[in-house]
What we know:
The protein has helices spanning 4-13, 15-26, 38-55, 129-146, 168-174, 176-179, 222-225, 232-241, 264-272, 296-302, 342-354, 381-394, 408-417, 442-461, and strands at 58-62, 69-73, 84-90, 111-114, 117-121, 152-158, 183-186, 198-203, 205-214, 220-221, 305-313, 323-324, 327-336, 362-366, 374-375, 399-403, 420-424, 439-441. It is an alpha+beta fold.
Amino acid sequence: MPDIENVLHNIDDNLNMAVSKLFELISIPSISNEPSREPDIAQAANWLLRELSSVGLVAEIIQTKGHPVVLAQSLSGLEEKQKRLLFYGHYDVQPIGDPEQWTYAPFKPELIEDGDIKRFYGRGASDSKSQLWTFIEALRAWKSVNGEFPAEITVVLEGEEECGSPSLPEFIQQHREDLACDVAFICDAEMWSPTQPAITTQLKGLFHERVMISAPNPDLHSGHYGAVAANPIRILSAILAGIHDDRGRVKIKGFYDDVRDIPDALRKQWHELSRYSGLFDGVELSGGVIEEGYSALEAMWGRPTVDINGITGGNQGPGERSVLPGTATARLSFRLVSGQEPEKVRASFRRYVESLIPDGCSVVFEGISGSSPVVLSQDSAFLRASAQGLEAEWGQPAVLIGTGGAIPLVQQFSEVLGADCIVIGFILSTDAIHAPDENYDMERLRKGARSWVRIFKEIQQMQ
Ligand SMILES: [Zn+2]
């Protein structure tokens, strides 16, 4: 049996080094959707290539049509029955937004004492550089104590997750053989609370739409024509206001056609989660409208939603401008559940909008692709092994959760590779992900790395 106590000690003893390495990675502004950051993306990929090589993996950088993928594998040549575990993470980050809103520098992380917690701030601190660092650190510690990896290992680190993973489907197809594995761990997900681990087994689908409504005329003087000419903002607002009824139901015809009911057993499982506190900590829900007949968790994880993400048009300036705008634009996101497909729901939405455009006005839609919802099996030996490993580390059972979020590659991995996918991460919704002052803490980094060691042990003991 492998010596796991020594591996766990090794992680504890190496924690300061692990943190300073992670700080090097966070210091690289690898923002994937700002073209000027391409050299930083390349620098982050090269940095990871070096680190994965120093852990003992054979690493390479694979160019794609977009940003490169870092692919690393163990080539131990151990017995064939050895399992192959794949780890996925992403090294790209979101833009920082308004720098004025950051209390801490986004790319100069340092440890800040916050009571008992040692926290660090930076873009990517939580999403997702610390996440990928948990499994790299676990692999390093295991190899240095035991002389070999716990199984055959593949690591895939993507550089375009934050801009929708456009190159990933082609990468997965082209590298099917390199990626073949028994189980793929997708490490980019939330815990239930700071002390309670979770495994995500249900993910929503997602697509976006941009809708622009134009009047027959460009901007007009609202005094001259306000009483008579069409106002696209007024038309758009009425359309958007008509999407929901006052019970929180979506009124778009056909929207719920393919939606599968939440199975009773799952409703019960989620209901039992209400005994664990934590999920809504730090978020005020008053003023929200939960769809009638569903609990908050059921609405978040098991019911489709439409969200209006932004509206623009007309006078946005600091002063008054009495204008009848020529156009009005809205952006929306649609979160889908089991049974729904993005293109079909998109078509119903477009028909709904078109039916409400007055004569003389016109509408242009923009929006392509999207991801389908994913429901992962809860009856997987790898899932049970992972749950046991997590519980051993955190001292609390790993809860099986859903998410309103989408991770499109989960579907691609399970379809193309035919592997079990296990979605585990050590993020919290209070980490200010995608927001100013994104942060993470040293203890979760330590326990995250230790969790993987315990999971490796459980997997080695699987029959
Ligand atoms: Zn993200």
